[in-house]
Amino acid sequence: MLIICTTCDDGRGQALLEAVENEALARDLPLPIRGQACMAACRQSCTAALQGAGKHSYLFGQLAPDADSVAALLDVAAQHAEPGDGLLAWARRPERLKSGLLARLPPLG
Questions:
Q1: A single Pfam family, by name (predicted)?
Q2: CATH number of the domain bearing residue 22
């Protein structure tokens, strides 16, 4: 699941969410996407997270509601959804997400 902070940076988070949702629809991606009010990383806005059962969770910051961030989030979300523990290899991450990683948490359990 891709989660995007909707309260980041005076509406830019909501704009990022809408841009990601629109692009996912345009690409016909069956990806769960949702907005979340305040993910408590305000100094690193805009922020987005990846979560999944049995998978590592990620929190990315310093995103903009632009085409590069949208494409990067959709690409990395597709990688995260692949079978396995959700570990994202640095080399496979889109360039835009090789920096701005705020946290990686191990799977629960």
A1: DUF1636
A2: 3.40.30
